[in-house]
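Dear H.,

Thanks for agreeing to be a second pair of eyes. The structure we're designing against is below in token form, covering all 145 positions.
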């Protein structure tokens, strides 16, 4: 996977501080991703979402810590999902071009599962995409022509 538009370099202390704010430790593969890229636009970017009528969709951008664009910030998107989908316990980590969110589910500890939250539905329908961040990234593929 290639990443365009990565965020500013992070230190271990910055990630540790973010985890302290969250109240839990991020999965190791996601921590490594943040330290290496701190978000950005992936290539390839298509992913299948089981149960979603409009699948496949894209991963437009991965969110990060302290990114210049507010809408690409983990903290901003955490506030968004809390406001729009209060019943969902999840950390948004990316979005598709339609503004729907890929999230690290917080339903179980430690958090590992990646879910798709469809903000276009009144109940913020959830779809399991991958059992881990590492598997989520491995499932990214080019769009079929």
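And this is the sequence the design step returned. I haven't edited it by hand at all.
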């Amino acid at each position: 996977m290639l990443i365009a538009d990565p965020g500013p370099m992070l230190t271990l202390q910055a990630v540790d501080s973010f985890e302290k704010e969250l109240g839990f430790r991020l999965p190791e593969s996601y921590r490594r991703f943040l330290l290496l890229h701190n978000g950005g636009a992936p290539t390839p970017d298509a992913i299948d979402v089981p149960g979603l009528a409009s699948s496949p969709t894209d991963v437009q951008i991965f969110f990060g810590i302290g990114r210049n664009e507010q809408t690409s910030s983990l903290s901003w998107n955490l506030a968004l999902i809390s406001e729009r989908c209060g019943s969902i316990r999840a950390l948004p980590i990316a979005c598709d071009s339609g503004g729907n969110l890929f999230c690290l589910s917080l339903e179980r500890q430690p958090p590992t599962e990646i879910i798709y939250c469809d903000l276009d539905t009144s109940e913020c329908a959830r779809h399991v995409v991958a059992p881990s961040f590492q598997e989520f990234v491995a499932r990214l593929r080019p769009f079929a022509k």
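Two observations from my side: The helical segments are 12-22, 28-36, 74-84, 133-138. The chain has a mean pLDDT of 93.

Warmly,
E.
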